[in-house]
User: What shape does this take?
Amino acid sequence: MNDRRMIDVLVGAFVLLGLAALLFLALKAGNLASFTIGGTYETRARFDNIGGLKVRAPVKSAGVVVGRVAGIDFDDTTYQATVRLALDGRFRFPTDSSLKILTSGLLGEQYIGLEAGAEERMLVAGDTIKLTQSAVVLENLISQFLFSRAAEGEKRP
Amino acid sequence: MIDAVARIGERALGRLAGIGHGARFFARLLAVAPSALARPRLVVEQLHFIGNRSLSIIAVSGLFVGFVLGLQGYYTLQRYGSAEALGLLVALSLVRELGPVVSALLFAGRAGTSLTAEIGLMKAGEQLAAMEMMAVDPMRRVLAPRFVAAVIAMPMLAAIFSAIGIVGAWGVGVQLIGVDAGSFWSQMQSGVDVFKDVGNGVVKSVVFGFVCAFVALYVGHEARPTPEGVSRATTTTVVASSLAVLGFDFILTALMFGTD
Assistant: This one.
């Protein structure tokens, strides 16, 4: 009888350990903790070029994560990318806030930088953020640089 | 000429019959598995035998795999100046691949062999036949609890393996080498998705639990009832379940992470 009890305790400990490991993976290694419980509200924005932006990329304001990219679509009437942003319900932003696609570090992932505006009215679910700035595409940057050098070269002689 | 064709035909039919036999065994096992839950006592005993006793080897290997991943990952990443991504590298490789696969391989070696030997010896000692004589279905009484216990134990062991591995990599990367602790964890959290990565890892390990348990029980059940037959069967269990796990891993990875 005592032996049985021992086995019960050991198996119980094993199962608890397994569940604790799963919980650890979900909370400490995974992003379950960063899911906002307070709910989110969804806004939209159009970009001419989103570069390498991915779904679930962070939206940061002043460096703090305030939301995530919920979805990316292509609009074939304006030929622009439509990005859906799920912003944290705890934070409110003015309607004239602007968005910029930025890169963390030299080779890091791309994220959206949100700069708050000065408008009195705040963004609500379904609003579209109008002021956007596209991702910097390295090839475009280089070609701009080359063209400007070439133009300078023509002027000089 | 005709003889050669006949031999090929015989071989092919033999193989087909073998596959059919295995499939019927598996279907039978699945059908009786729920009845094992009606007798939790037997499952708990097997869980102790299969799960608890495998814990030490799983924990130690997880720790060392984590150490090595931390060291080697750091060595490569620091060349590109992105040593902070160490946490992400370690967590993704453990949760997606190494955790489920390595723990399944260890499980096949540690628990699969003992299941095969046990069933094989039971058969050699005609205990299974004796049970049938007493109108006790050995499938329900002996095989089903072991099958259920293995399927429950496998995801637990894989999760423990991954968690300890991550802790090991943290020990080497953060404590020993000096990667920044904050970015180690935050990079990990930003890159590991709970459902896509952790969830799929768990699905994988459940599948591997089915595979390992089925192979171990089937091979043991079909072993020739001689000492040599049992020893061969244990070897077959290790080889067959390791290969099956690797094969299934490739298929599952292609299905789960193939298109991003």
